Amino acid sequence: MKKQLLLVVSLCAGFIASAAADSRVAVYSPGQTQPVIIAGANNLAQLTLNPQLAGRTWWPGTVIAEKLATAAQLDQQRQLLARLGALSADLRQDNDTGLANSVDQVRSQIAALRVTGRQFVSLDPDVIRLQTGANRTLLGEYSLYTLAKPTSVHIYGAVAATGPQPYLVSRDADDYLQTHQRLSGAERSYAWVILPDGQYQSVPVAYWNRRHNEVAPGSIIYVGFSPWALPRAYRDVNEKIVSLLTHRIPD
Q: Average of pLDDT values for 202-214?
């Protein structure tokens, strides 16, 4: 697994608006219109053990985001949408309508994506308590996104019928993709699997290279574009899409 790097603003640095060192965490839960505010949690241990969060979330997929990092991710999303729009226009100029349509479909998925400035730290209370350095300091403003234990897997990318799919025990990425037709220009030999904690890897899914890589509930499967189908100047779009997907706000 590849561990994502923290963004420009880390949990330890935080955003200090005044001399006060307290944090303010807005807790968002599915089905609630207004967040619950937890103030004064000085570190992750104090936050995760707060009685207001007891039994309210599935920690492996819970996302904590920092205010300035969220602004940076939203800017990354805007830049990626502009890049995909330019790619589609270039392909249409070259009369590659099929691939341009595929790019447009993926662009629509990215436009609908809710992203935040996720900080890639463990929120498991036991890890925070036992692992040296895991109890990060909290300074400034954060958002915390809670969720129930997932019962689905999300599919994105250059395939038909994207979105949530029921989780199936012991199934790998290829099992989920069997009934999803690849769009023009799609990668057929590999897919990306993004775990609920934000780690990701490229996994083989073709008949000639397939290896069993069980997909955990709450994961994302992304089918990218084949690098051979893309113009040279756009061959980094898969990596940029995967990076953005690691910052997705859970359902």
A: 88
